[in-house]
Amino acid sequence: MLWAYVQASGQQSANLVDAANLAGLVSGHMSSSVIAPLRDRTQLGASTAAAQPLDSPEPTRSGLSAKQSRTVESLIGAAVEELRFGGYEHLTVRNVARRAGVAPATAYTYFTSREHLVTEVFWRRLWALPETPVDRRRSAVNRVSATMSDLSLLVADEPELAAACTAAMLATDAEVALLRDRIGAEMRRRLSIALGDQADPDVLGTLEFVISGALMHAGVGHMTYSELPDYLDRAVQLVVPGVTK
């Protein structure tokens, strides 16, 4: 497990990279053929320069009217309510449409599957998450740990939603893949800001794998969300340079 590498005292960061590679393989962000040192791979948004946050959470839709935007928001809110009452197992786009007061055919014009719908819920939560304050007087380790903690607790208070997101984001739908890319790019942007302008691409890439792997482990029940900040803090101390042992 990823957290076992973090927990073991004296482990080198190379071990953490191996565990992170496994998390990337399982999550569908990479295939076995591309497991390689981070510096030898081209990743989404590989530049360490911090990208600008998106002005809108809309991943593909453009030119929506005010009414259409309200319909999308209504469906997203209804999906969260459906998850609270019935869990992911019983979630369907049709049930969500019924709760939102929207015709099923209309709902399917915006969301092609329940996986698409749930992944967009997570993406919009991430997009709306306030930026972690960055104090350059603090060490990079402290800044990254604070950012990691904010990201890890995004859906911690909603266990049904958290479990649903873990399952939904593994789907192979094109719409889900696009949202996964958006989610990964936004997490990378936030971590890059925390590291600073001269961040090592290998360090940044490893941190991306750490947070995605940790979220997966919590999502499938191998650890609790309340445990994530401490484990992530240990991981950051292993990965980010400048820590005195």
Folded structure, characterized:
This protein is mostly helical. It folds into 2 domains: 2-46 and 122-157 and 164-239, Tetracycline Repressor, domain 2; 66-113, Orthogonal Bundle (Arc Repressor Mutant, subunit A), CATH 1.10.10. 60% of the residues lie in helices and 0% in strands. The chain contains 11 helices and no strands. Residues 1-50 have low confidence and may be disordered.
Q: Can you tell me the number of structural domains?
A: 2
Q: List segments where confidence is low: pLDDT < 50 over at least 5 consecutive residues.
A: 1-50
The largest pleated sheet is described as: none
- Average pLDDT figure: 80
User: How many helices in DSSP terms?
Assistant: 11
CATH class of the largest domain: Mainly Alpha
Summarize the structure.
The protein has 245 residues and is mostly helical. It has helices spanning 2-7, 13-27, 66-86, 93-100, 104-110, 114-128, 140-152, 159-168, 174-195, 201-219, 228-239. The longest helix is centred in the C-terminal third of the chain and has 22 residues, at 174-195.
Please describe the topology of this protein:
Layout (H helix, E strand, L loop, with lengths): L1 H6 L5 H15 L38 H21 L6 H8 L3 H7 L3 H15 L11 H13 L6 H10 L5 H22 L5 H19 L8 H12 L6
Helix pairs in contact: 2-10, 3-4, 3-6, 4-5, 6-8, 6-9, 7-9, 7-11, 9-10, 10-11
Keywords:
60% helix; mainly alpha; 2 domains; Arc Repressor Mutant, subunit A; 11 helices; Tetracycline Repressor, domain 2; 245 residues
